[in-house]
């Protein structure tokens, strides 16, 4: 009998879903975990449709509980090109305007890849649920086009700009084994406490002057 190469993934997901059904949400893995540094496996229908739906729901629950605006499967230790995104957090109007932060309705992506739409970049502080307690300034494409598959197997293309484009890039990078620190201006790195006490503003001018970047 031939081996099923998807069996280990199916078993891992089944165990995680069973624990979640008993009220135990999986921990979000932290920097240093190999799942965050290994390119995730492409989605090739390794899971049954119902199991995929449950996994997407679990990712969304973990994202909300953290709380965050995106979560990729490798952040739960699952090597699969799957991520969920959603941003409905309210922030001050000045910050929302400067950062071009608009509401991002929930959606899930499989096998995503993005491309820059123009040369314009944007630099803002960014954090990650897998680098808990820290933030750094990351230059990102201001606008991107995202190619992906929806959970029902349909090829999709959407364009994003501003803060939603930042979320798209951050989560897609996770699936390539990349963390935001790989693209960050490291002199800007600040603990959450130091950021809140010294550098919290809509832009990054205070931090640029104070930290020298």
From TrEMBL:
Task: State which Enzyme Commission number(s) the record gives.
Answer: 3.5.1.88
The record ties this protein, via Gene3D superfamilies, to: Peptide deformylase (3.90.45.10)
Which InterPro entries does this one have?
Peptide_deformylase, Peptide_deformylase_sf
**Which positions are catalytic residues?**
171
Q: Which of UniProt's keywords are assigned here?
A: Hydrolase, Iron, Metal-binding, Protein biosynthesis
A Pfam family for this UniProt protein? Answer: Pep_deformylase
Q: Do you know which SUPFAM superfamilies this protein is assigned to?
A: Peptide deformylase
Q: What does this protein do?
A: Removes the formyl group from the N-terminal Met of newly synthesized proteins. Requires at least a dipeptide for an efficient rate of reaction. N-terminal L-methionine is a prerequisite for activity but the enzyme has broad specificity at other positions.
Q: Which residues bind Fe cation?
A: 128, 170, 174
The protein's GO terms of the molecular function aspect are: peptide deformylase activity
Give cofactor(s), names only. Fe(2+)
Q: Which family does it belong to?
A: Belongs to the polypeptide deformylase family.
Cofactor details (free text) = Binds 1 Fe(2+) ion.
Q: Which reaction does it catalyse?
A: N-terminal N-formyl-L-methionyl-[peptide] + H2O = N-terminal L-methionyl-[peptide] + formate
Its protein name is Peptide deformylase
Q: Which organism is it from?
A: Arthrobacter russicus
Q: Extract the HAMAP family matched here.
A: Pep_deformylase
């Amino acid at each position: 009998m031939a081996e099923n190469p998807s069996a280990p993934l199916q078993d891992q997901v089944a165990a995680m879903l069973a624990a979640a059904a008993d009220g135990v949400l999986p921990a979000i893995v932290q920097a240093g975990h190999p799942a965050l540094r290994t390119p995730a496996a492409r989605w090739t229908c390794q899971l049954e449709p119902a199991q995929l739906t449950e996994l997407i729901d679990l990712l969304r629950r973990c994202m909300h509980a953290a709380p965050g605006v995106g979560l990729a499967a490798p952040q739960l230790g699952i090597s699969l090109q799957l991520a969920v995104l959603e941003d409905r957090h309210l922030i001050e109007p000045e910050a929302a305007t400067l950062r071009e932060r608009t509401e991002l309705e929930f959606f899930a992506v499989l096998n995503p890849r993005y491309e820059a739409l123009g040369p314009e970049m944007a630099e803002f502080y960014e954090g990650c649920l897998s680098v808990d307690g820290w933030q750094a300034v990351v230059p990102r494409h201001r606008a991107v086009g995202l190619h992906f598959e929806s959970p029902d197997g349909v090829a999709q293309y959407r364009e994003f700009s501003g803060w939603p484009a930042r979320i798209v890039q951050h989560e897609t990078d996770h699936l390539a084994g990349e963390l935001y620190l790989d693209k960050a201006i490291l002199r800007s790195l600040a603990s959450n406490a130091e950021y809140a006490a010294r550098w919290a503003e809509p832009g990054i001018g205070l931090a640029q002057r104070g930290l020298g970047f």
